[in-house]
Design goal:
heterotrimer; A mainly alpha; B mainly alpha; C mainly alpha; B: mainly alpha; Four Helix Bundle (Hemerythrin (Met), subunit A); 8 helices; about 70% helix; C: mainly alpha; Cytochrome C Oxidase, Chain A; binds protoporphyrin IX containing FE; iron (chain C); Cyt_c_oxase-like_su1_sf (chain C); transmembrane helix (chain C); heme binding (chain C); cytochrome-c oxidase activity (chain C)
Chain lengths: ~110, ~250, ~550
């Protein structure tokens, strides 16, 4: 069968080399996540007004990205997988933004 | 090369796939095992995409109602225990860490390590659900479960219950129910995903112990890992959104 | 020009019937017995399972359409009570949309031909493919259960708070049905995307794929990203009904419009889930029967993806009169105009493909012509509805009913029939009776227009949809519509009968009766279980008729 397995990868340009992450990396990520959890709890108790939810969401997003990049290996995946992940968040973003455009413009000034 | 298309050979087509070396896990409709593995990962990611959109609907509802009824959300959120929430976050992250090590173990073909990391993943998963049960139970006792028995007295008159909250006007107090609806819907859906994951973990432990994943066949472990980490990520967002709305006020 | 013996009126080229034989081994006789079908993982057999089951549901949905038209024969509510009438159109809508149109082309023709067209042995996940058929059947069973237990009367749109607070019918059963059927469609889409990315044969680059594959790919993206939002909306409706959670209940602070947003976030893309695969069929058919490469191949391919993308930005045009903000309505109205552009690109490119082509009028081509005409009318009236001012006048009238039947029946159903006739010889190895099928294509076309053209006028004059009685002055047009529906019914029943007949008595088709270029036509009919005896290598563009001409005879062979 290898006769048809094209070395140039013309059929599957999305293909990426497989990459094994070691326990050291995982431990670093684990500790990072725990620290970020601590920070997010701490930040919640500091009065920052409108910034509070923004900070909370920013930290959560950083944590999520860290989990995806290393625990879920997205960093080492093909472009296809990266785009797939992006597409998911993009569509979610469309759902939120387009719907919000209705709710916000229904009551200008009250948001 | 045009004649390669649909050329029939003398030999019976049934035996066509005997030509290549067949590993037990290799399904015959894939050209190579690598192709199979990449297809599996990609399929799993597409499934997670649908999960993003599934939870996305609820996250949107949260965003909307939190903006509409912020005082109610603040007061209701203060009823959740940050301590339990934070502990649970740590537990879940630990479970995810064990899972990540499990993927490593499968990749370097360490059977014992794989089995033990999977067991650790399971134990921390159950611990998470245990804490969640305690929290749910408290909500039942306080009549904070949406439905007929839902009661807003703590939010209308917090002082009577020894709470240092601002009292809410009755109609805003009613809106705390929306918060708890979203709380139960989102954490409940999350817990459901955990339960499904734990069931799969038992099966994976059984197979890992049998040695299925000790010869370079890591796809099921890897793909389950993706699922498990995704469930983590959902919680990573749920924790600040539900527990930490406005701690500095109370 | 063609080396094969053909005359000017037809390109059909079937083997000499006195000597022709069906291939000894194929996917149909590979295994025997009912269980070999129910537990198959072969994409071709699963496609056949789907074909049988969606046909079944099509006729159930059709029966309700018949009852609706019968009631509307007279202005008085004489056949059924208003509640019953509501149940009729709800059942009609649910069955036709979720159990027929959404799976129609992808799950049958797509399932059968996508792997073959890209030179693969099967879909990437054969067992998940079978699972999605079982989920489909479970969804169908729940729908039938809702029907037998007493029906639902929410309309296919499950509008809140009507569905959550004011109805005493089997809403939850129907919701469960749609939830489950939704996952069937998610898994089909997922399988297609992975297959198209990962299983293409060597040389089968993206821009060598048949356009049918492209359009199914685009539809799959919509299935994967849109359907889960419907699923969660439906779950919330069910929870609202059972325990009164209040997310959609204004008395508890919820917003019924939130349901509308979530529902249409899926259901507008869903109309493209329904039409895109049909557009793919039309590309194949038009090219084959005008002996030309599809004009502007790249534009047509990208327009499918553009439709999928834009499809996510227009949903609120279903909500113009429901209380969305005026500003946002304006934006959605403008975006709706935008989404018509890629559809128009396809229409123009098909027209240019036909230009100077050697056109022949076989049955699939007749259906394709019907599609082009009817879909154009449907799409353009969609643009009317998308413009804010017009919509206020036309919404919730028969104008909408006519609009979506022009795209869904005139467009998608015609495309489905075009595809079924086009690939029937490949799927079964036998030809259908040509003149009878032409007759029935014509019958459907005429019947369709008599049924739905009057509805545009009725709607414009102000007849509302979803009522079982109407002022007497609308009767003439309604009688016309019912009469047309009868003709249409004949037009749709005939193919069922003669296709079944052809299974035994049809002429043996040979490998490539249409002289078409797709990989599926280069293998035996019906195909082998493993599709190809050897992995094909694609060394030419799609729709390359010169390549086909220069192929030597022995390249096309059967096994056994
Ligand atoms: C070509 C571009 C299209 C445009 C611009 C368009 C536009 C619209 C608009 C604005 C409405 C809403 C009318 C109202 O509720 O007042 C509508 C309704 C509808 N359209 Fe289209 N449409 C298009 C194509 C399609 C296609 C391809 C399909 C299906 C295959 C479809 C199926 C429907 C259905 C089912 C409804 C009615 C939904 C209900 O029950 O309320 N449309 N269309
Ligand atoms: Cu629409």
């Amino acid at each position: 069968m290898s006769a048809h397995n094209d070395a140039m990868n013309t059929t599957n340009p999305e293909h990426a080399e497989h990459h094994i992450l070691g326990p050291g990396t995982y431990t670093t990520i684990y500790v990072t996540l725990l620290i970020l959890t601590g920070i997010t709890v701490g930040a919640a108790f500091i009065p920052m007004g409108v910034l509070n939810p923004i900070v909370a969401l920013a930290i959560a997003s950083v944590k999520a990205v860290v989990v995806m990049l290393w625990f879920m290996h997205v960093k080492y995946q093909s472009r296809l997988i990266k785009m797939t992940v992006g597409a998911g968040f993009f569509t979610f973003f469309v759902l939120i933004m387009m719907t919000m455009s209705d709710y916000i413009s229904r009551a200008w000034g009250q948001w | 090369m045009a004649n390669a298309i649909a050329t029939a050979h003398e030999h019976d087509a049934h035996h066509a796939h005997d030509e290549h070396v067949v590993l037990p896990q290799h399904l015959h409709h894939f050209e190579t095992e690598e192709q199979q593995r990449e297809a599996g990962t990609f399929g799993m990611w597409l499934f997670l995409l649908t999960e993003i959109m599934f939870f996305g609907g609820m996250f949107f509802a949260y965003l909307l109602y939190r903006n509409w009824y912020n005082p109610a959300f603040v007061a209701a959120s203060n009823q959740l225990s940050v301590k339990l929430g934070a502990i649970n976050t740590a537990i879940l992250i630990t479970s995810g860490y064990a899972m990540a090590l499990g993927v490593y173990a499968a990749e370097v073909r360490k059977k014992q390590m794989l089995v033990w990391t999977l067991i650790a993943t399971t134990i921390f998963g159950f611990a998470f659900l245990g804490v969640k049960t305690v929290e749910y139970k408290e909500k039942f006792e306080k009549h904070h479960v949406p439905g007929a028995s839902f009661d807003v007295k703590e939010f209308v008159n917090p002082a009577a219950f020894g709470l240092k909250e601002e009292p809410l006007a009755p109609d805003m107090a009613q809106k705390t129910q929306i918060f708890f609806v979203l709380y139960f819907a989102m954490t409940g859906m999350h817990a459901l995903h955990m339960i499904i994951g734990l069931a799969l973990l038992f099966w994976l432990i059984y197979r890992a112990n049998r040695g299925d994943f000790s010869s370079g066949y890591v796809a099921p472990i890897e793909n389950f890992g993706l699922y498990w980490h995704f469930v983590d990520i959902v919680w990573i967002f749920l924790f600040p959104l539900l527990y930490l709305i406005n701690k500095h006020v109370g | 020009m063609m080396s094969a013996p053909i005359n000017n009126n037809t390109i059909v080229n079937i083997p000499d019937q006195r000597t022709a034989k069906m291939p000894k081994r194929n996917y149909i006789n590979n295994e025997h017995g009912l269980l070999s079908w129910l537990f198959t993982a072969d994409h071709k057999r699963i496609a056949i399972l789907y074909l049988i089951s969606i046909t079944f549901f099509f006729f159930i949905g059709g029966a309700f359409a018949g009852l609706i038209r019968l009631e509307l024969l007279t202005p008085q509510p004489d056949l059924v009570a208003s509640d019953t009438y509501n149940k009729f159109f709800t059942m009609h809508g649910i069955v036709m949309i979720f159990l027929f149109l959404v799976p129609s082309v992808p799950a049958t023709l797509g399932n059968f031909f996508i792997p073959i067209m890209i030179g693969a042995k099967d879909l990437a996940f054969p067992k998940i493919n079978l699972l999605s058929w079982y989920l489909y059947m479970a969804g169908g069973t729940f729908t039938l259960a809702a029907l037998v237990l007493g029906g639902v009367d929410t309309g296919w749109t499950f509008t809140t708070p009507l569905s959550t607070h004011y109805l005493n019918t089997h809403v939850i059963t129907a919701a469960t049905a749609i939830f489950i059927a939704g996952f069937s469609s998610i898994f089909t889409g997922l399988n297609f995307i992975v297959t198209i990315h990962r299983m293409r044969a060597p040389g089968m680059t993206w821009f060598r794929m048949p356009l049918f594959v492209w359009s199914n790919y685009a539809a799959s993206i919509l299935m994967v990203l849109g359907t889960p939002v419907l699923a969660i909306a439906i779950v919330l409706v069910a929870l609202e009904r059972t325990i009164g959670i209040g997310v959609f209940d204004p008395t508890k602070g919820g917003d019924p419009l939130l349901f509308q947003h979530l529902f249409w976030f899926y259901s507008h893309p869903a109309v493209y889930i329904m039409i895109l695969p049909g557009m793919g069929v039309i590309s194949e058919v038009i090219s084959t029967f005008s002996r030309k490469r599809v004009f502007g191949y790249t534009a047509v391919a990208f327009s499918s993806v553009a439709i999928a993308l834009f499809g996510f930005f227009v949903w609120a045009h279903h909500m113009f009169i429901m209380g969305v903000s005026n500003y946002s309505a304006l934006v959605f109205s403008l975006l709706t105009m935008l989404v018509a552009v890629p559809s128009a690109i396809k229409i123009f490119n098909w027209a240019f493909t036909l230009q100077k082509g050697s056109i022949t009028f076989e049955t699939p081509m007749l259906y394709a012509f019907a599609f082009i005409g009817l879909f154009t009318i449907g799409g353009l009236t969609g643009v009317f509805l998308g413009s804010l001012g017009m919509d206020i006048h036309l919404t919730e009238t028969y104008f909408i009913v006519a609009h979506f039947h022009y795209v869904m029946v005139g467009g998608m159903l015609m495309a489905f029939l075009a595809g079924v006739h086009f690939w029937w010889p490949k799927m079964t190895g036998r030809m259908y009776p040509e003149s009878l099928s032409k007759l029935s294509a014509l019958t459907s076309f005429i019947g369709f227009n008599i049924t739905f053209l009057p509805q545009f006028i009725l709607g414009y004059l102000g007849m509302p949809r979803r009522y079982h009685a109407y002022p007497a002055e609308y009767q003439v047009l309604n009688v016309l519509s019912t009469a047309g529906a009868t003709v249409l019914g004949v037009g749709f029943t005939l193919p069922m009968l003669y296709l079944a007949w052809s299974l035994k008595y049809g002429a043996i088709a040979g490998n490539n009766p249409w002289q078409a270029t797709g990989l599926e036509w280069q293998i035996q009919s019906p195909p082998l279980t493993e599709n190809f005896t050897e992995t094909p290598i694609m060394d030419h563009e799609a729709y390359d008729y010169e390549w086909l001409e220069n192929k030597t005879a022995h390249e096309v062979t059967t096994v056994g």
